[in-house]
């Protein structure tokens, strides 16, 4: 499938370099498949808590993994972006490329981003090999997220102090068909066990 002009790099004097180590080589070395596990959900839904707990559980199982957290990334790589619709899309575009690099390197990369727009998440999926993008909908009700309000953001959003706040003053588009759905009103251990059972990490032969 050809890329649209908007997806092409500005520079025309570049050529992709190909290494000697394939994705299959890396999977054989690490002993597991490399995937991007994309947690999406409202602020306070439990995305970061789940991602970090899953990372710890994967480490115990000798699975190479790393968490990209939305706030952490905005301290560095995306510190120039705000929360307008355009900036949210660029935020996810940049992270999608980072995830693809992690996945190509043989790592299970876990992300925790609100990523409110379905079209943006579809673009992340599109740049991954088939089966290497696992969308996890953290389906925690808004009233639960707002009651938790771990960062005090909902109070500020309701007071009009935070514009473009997903679920309050900006839209959140739930995934219509995620690979995994998690309700974090359940115990954390149960959620992690569900994820471990559902993730396709076996590196058995693929045809």
Features:
single chain; 207 residues; alpha/beta; Rossmann fold; 5-stranded parallel sheet; 8 helices; globular
Break the fold down into its secondary structure elements and pairings:
Blueprint: H1 23-30, E1 36-40, H2 47-60, E2 65-69, H3 70-75, H4 85-104, E3 108-112, H5 118-126, E4 133-138, H6 142-148, H7 153-158, E5 180-182, H8 188-198
Parallel strand pairs: 1-3, 1-4, 2-3, 4-5
What features would you describe in this structure?
With 207 residues, this protein is of the alpha/beta class. It has one domain (40-198): 3-Layer(aba) Sandwich (Rossmann fold). The protein has eight helices and five strands, in the order αβαβααβαβααβα. Strands 2-3-1-4-5 form a five-stranded parallel beta sheet, sandwiched between helices. The two termini are 22 Å apart.
């Amino acid at each position: 499938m050809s890329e649209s002009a908007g997806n092409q790099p500005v520079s025309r004097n570049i050529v992709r370099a190909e290494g000697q180590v394939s994705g299959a080589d890396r999977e054989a070395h690490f002993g597991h498949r490399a995937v991007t596990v994309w947690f999406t959900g409202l602020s306070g839904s439990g995305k970061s808590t789940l991602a970090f707990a899953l990372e710890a559980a994967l480490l115990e199982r000798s699975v190479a993994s790393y968490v990209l957290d939305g706030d952490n990334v905005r301290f560095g790589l995306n510190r120039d972006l705000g929360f307008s619709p355009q900036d949210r899309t660029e935020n996810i575009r940049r992270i999608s490329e980072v995830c693809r690099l992690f996945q190509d390197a043989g790592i299970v990369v876990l992300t925790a981003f609100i990523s409110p727009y379905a079209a943006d998440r579809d673009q992340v999926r599109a740049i991954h090999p088939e089966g290497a993008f696992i969308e996890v909908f953290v389906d925690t009700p808004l009233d639960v997220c707002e009651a938790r309000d771990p960062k005090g953001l909902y109070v500020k959003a309701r007071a009009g102090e935070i514009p473009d706040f997903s679920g309050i003053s900006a839209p959140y588009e739930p995934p219509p068909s995620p690979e995994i759905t998690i309700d974090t009103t359940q115990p954390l251990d149960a959620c992690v066990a569900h994820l471990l059972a559902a993730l396709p990490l076996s590196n058995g032969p693929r045809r």
